[in-house]
Amino acid sequence: MMQHSEGTFNGAGGLKLYYQSWHPSEQPHGVLVIVHGLGAHIGLFGNVVQHLIPCGYAVYGFDLRGHGRSPGQQGYISSWAEFREDLGALLRLVEKQEPGCPRFLLGHSVGALIALEYVLRSSGELQGVIALALALGEVGVSPLKLTLGRILSQVWPRFSLDTGINHSAGSRDPAVITAYAQDTLRHTRGTARLVTEFLAAAAWIQDHAADLQLPLLILHGDGDKVAPLEATSAFFDQVTFLDKELKVYPGVYHEIHNDFNYQEMLADLEDWLERHRNEVMSNE
Questions:
Q1: Is residue 228 included in any domain, yes or no?
Q2: Domain limits at 14?
Q3: What are 102-157's pLDDT values in tens digits?
Q4: What is the pTM of this model?
């Protein structure tokens, strides 16, 4: 039996952000906190939730500012620190609601970038970080739009345009693409300031890969046309922490959790979580 709840919490600047949580009927033996990607929302991770709840995990996630049910201009941040502070606020909420429970952080695409930047700058109590389809470097946005964003970021930071990333680049499953197209909570907007903040965060993370001191799991499809596997592999190679794994799925697209053979990815995720949860418990 799954228990579902929703609410709000105060993010950076006091902005009230929407979050959801799912719990098993028994006391959870681990917690997974999810950060979605650009234009998405936490409601798109049903496959992850449905798989992990019966395994005894609680799942938390929030809609980023300017996304889903959270307020703010679509695709706009004044600085990357807002993402970091928003995530930190949710993690403190989780820590309060699930005291003593092993906690893991999972991000998808730009959300994986947010998660990695957070753990590289924070000494918070987390037992591991998982990156799905990590968005680094030349993402599936035209160079012209990226250049325009760089130019306008300082003079017109809220200038917004369509990212041009097609729904069909997300999944090979036609049912998923149809659902995405009809989902009124999704958007494809990006702003000039987001462009420069994203590029700066991506560069900073690549420069600090060797500083990561947390178990890392990266899951990526080699059919991803949005977030190139090459950039993810380069980052992985730069991580010196020994407890790291990279799994590549042949033909899989960007929305790795909603593509064909997502069950294989979730089985790998469950296996990794179980191994690291047991390590935490045995060390206590």
A1: yes
A2: 3-138+196-282
A3: 999 999 999 999 999 999 998 678 999 999 999 986 665 556 566 666 666 676 66
A4: 0.94
- pLDDT digit string (tens) for 10-19? 999 999 999 9
Q: How far apart are the C-alpha atoms of 146 and 64, rounded to whole Å?
A: 21
Residue 107 lies in a domain: yes
How does pLDDT run across 165-219, given as a tens digit for each residue?
A: 677 889 999 999 999 989 999 988 888 788 888 888 999 999 999 999 999 999 9
User: Which pLDDT belongs to residue 90?
Assistant: 98
Does residue 158 lie in a domain region? no
Domains contained in the chain, number = 1
- Residue 187 inside a domain? The answer is no
